Amino acid sequence: MSETGGPIDDGGIEVARDPFELFAEWMAAAEKTEPNEANAMAVATVDADGRPNLRMVLLKDVDDRGFVFYTNTESAKGRELAAHSHVALNFHWKTQRRQVRVRGAATPVSAEEADAYFASRAKDSQIGAWASAQSRPMIGRWVFEKEIAKFAMKFALTKVPRPPHWSGYRVAPLEIEFWRDRPFRLHDRLVYRRDVVDKPWRTERLFP
C-alpha cells in the first residue's frame, strides 16, 4: 500500500495526487468516444427491507466534494436516500474498456445549486419535473400527459420554478476504484480509500 502521489510500482493505472484528477482524465477520454452519454452512471441504494435497488442516472457535476445528480426527492431513490444515505455508483465506458466504482454517502445539494441547475434545463424537462409523480403507480399514460398539459398551460408565459420535490444529491466518496481492461483478464484495479471525507486518500492495487 502507498500514499497517493507515490511511485508507480507496476506500470498499471497511474496514481494521481487526487482521484478526482484521474476521474476527470478518464471522463474527458470517454466523452470523445462514447456514442451516447459518457456521464451515465448507475446509482445503487437500499430499500426499506435492506434490498439493493439500482438505476441509471446522469452525472451533472463533479469536484473534490463529490459526484452530483438530480432527481425527484419523492421517487423511490429519493425515499431510500432519506432513510439510508450510503450509496454506490458505477461508471462503465465500453469504448474505453474502463469503469469507475464509487461508494460514499449522499447528501442534498444546496437550494442555490438546485435552483441554478433546474434553471439550465429545457422548459419541457422543467414541466416534466412538475408533472411526474416519479416511481408511483400510473393508471395510464394519459394521466401523465394530462399533467404535462396542465403545467404547460400554467407556466406558458412565465419561468418555471423548481418544484419543492425536485433537487440534487452529492455523493461524497470514501472509496473510488478505477478498473481498466487488459489482455487475458489481467486487468488493472486501483482503489483510493479514506476513513472520513476530510482525511487523506490511501491507494491500493487489487488483484483482478
Number of strands: 10
- Intertermini distance: 16 Å
CATH topology: Pnp Oxidase, Chain A
CATH superfamily label: Electron Transport, Fmn-binding Protein, Chain A
Round the Cα radius of gyration to an integer and report it: 20 Å
CATH class wording: Mainly Beta
**Main β-sheet description:** 10 strands, antiparallel
Care to describe what's here?
- The protein is of the alpha+beta class and 208 residues long.
- It has one domain (2-111, 165-205): Electron Transport, Fmn-binding Protein, Chain A (Pnp Oxidase, Chain A).
- 27% of the residues lie in helices and 34% in strands.
- It is built from five helices and ten strands.
- Strands 1, 2, 3, 4, 5, 6, 7, 8, 9 and 10 form a ten-stranded antiparallel sheet that branches.
- The two termini are 16 Å apart.
- The model is unreliable at 1-10 (pLDDT under 50).
Describe the secondary-structure layout.
Elements: E1 2-3, H1 19-33, E2 40-46, E3 52-58, E4 61-63, E5 66-72, H2 76-83, E6 86-93, E7 98-108, H3 111-120, H4 123-131, H5 141-154, E8 166-180, E9 188-193, E10 202-205
Antiparallel strand pairs: 1-10, 2-3, 2-6, 4-5, 5-8, 6-7, 7-8, 8-9, 9-10
Helix pairs in contact: 4-5
